[in-house]
Amino acid sequence: MPTAQASAIGTRHRVKIADVAFGGDGVARLDDGRVAFVPLVGLGEEVTIEIVAARKNFLHAKLVSIEVPSPDRVQPPCVVYGRCGGCAYQHLSYPAQLALKERQLAATLRRVGHLTAEDAPVRPIVASPREFEYRNRITVHLANGAAGFHAAGSNKLVEIARCEIAEPAVNEALAALAANRRRKREDGHRTLRADRTRRFFHQANDFAAAELMRVVSELVGAGGASLVDAYCGAGWFIKELRGRFAQCLGLEWDRYAVEEARKDALDHERYLEGDVALLLPEALANVSKTDTTLILDPPAEGLAAAVSDEISHAQPQRVIYVSCHPATLARDLARLKRGGYKIEHVTPVDMFPQTAEIEAVAFLTAR
Ligand SMILES: C[S@@+](CC[C@H](N)C(=O)[O-])C[C@H]1O[C@@H](n2cnc3c(N)ncnc32)[C@H](O)[C@@H]1O
Question: Which residue of 77, 89, 307, 310 shows the fewest CB atoms closer than 10 Å?
Answer without folding.
Answer: 77
